[in-house]
């Protein structure tokens, strides 16, 4: 089968002919149809310091996918050949304290598909049945392919109550934009997004948010004054990993405000801790998705009319992966899809 492999410890990925994966009794073999390119995949493609430290040469990469069940191991009863599925990319240990308590998202020893175990940028992937999610046959395949990052967005947007609240989102990449759409769908009053990129502000501007802000020209105080907000934002989603974005967010929250952090800063940095204490701010780190509760929530949101397709801006055949990664690297894109359906 075709697979995108990190064959050398240098920038790039290589399309290789590799054996179809074997499946264990509890596994399912999935014929991959579409995949989404994640920032993580781009780190691996570019071979930065993080990738060099975390990824073994020879790995099949990628973790955002939709496909059809091809074959099931003997112990699998809940899937049939032909079923449309995506997969949760964290394969948990099942034995640690958190796993045993049912908090699988908090597993301290999980493996990551396409980072520490074979990935989805291939014609086939083998996954434990317990990590797969059924899609209804009617779902748009490109939307189904991005349930992994959509799950990050829903996990962020369900961290705190949003009904009637004013929400600030710093970082309008695909996950930030999907979180903004969920916040609007969930009944937030104002949904304000900021990003330094003109491309991403334009994309955000087409999603019906309350305001889209260029932090280089407009302060959050200007926005609050314009919206006649007097006490600051109720809820913040920090999606950029940018130190100034987090500092400005913390300074513009109301007393008792709540902040969800998903963006990963490249380096440690200072924040004003006394402001956090005096303002009684709640800050919560978000990683991955609740397994599988977030998947249930995503299906319900899409089924009840939430349309995340506007965040998908580019589609390529799998063999055009170099061009697709060039677009992702330019950051002048939303979500980029690779189509594996033509073998
Ligand atoms: Zn991802
Ligand atoms: Zn565990």
Largest sheet: 7 strands, mixed
Shape: globular
CATH class of the largest domain: Alpha Beta
What is the strand content?
Answer: 15-25%
Would you tell me the structural class of the helices and strands?
A: alpha/beta
Low-confidence stretches: none
SSE run: EEEHHEEEHEEEHHEHEHEHEHEHEHEHE
Assign the CATH superfamily of the largest domain. Medium-chain alcohol dehydrogenases, catalytic domain
Q: Share of helix among residues?
A: 25-40%
Bound molecules: zinc ion
The CATH topology of the largest domain comes to: Quinone Oxidoreductase, Chain A, domain 1
Quick check: average pLDDT? 97
Radius of gyration: 20 Å
Domains (count): 2
Distance between the termini: 8 Å
Describe this structure in words.
There is one protein chain. The protein has twelve helices and 17 strands. It has helices at 39-46, 49-54, 97-100, 141-145, 147-157, 174-185, 198-205, 220-226, 243-251, 273-278, 293-303, 321-330, and strands at 2-5, 14-17, 27-37, 64-72, 84-87, 90-91, 111-112, 124-128, 132-134, 167-170, 191-194, 211-213, 233-238, 253-261, 282-285, 312-317, 335-339. Helix 5 crosses helix 6 (174-185) and helix 5 (147-157) packs across helix 11. The mean pLDDT is 97. One zinc ion is lined by residues 38, 40, 63-64, 148-149. The site of one zinc ion (ZN) has 6 residues, from helix 5.
Quick structural gist:
With 343 residues, the chain is α/β, with parallel strands linked by helices. It is built from 12 helices and 17 strands. The N and C termini lie close together (8 Å).
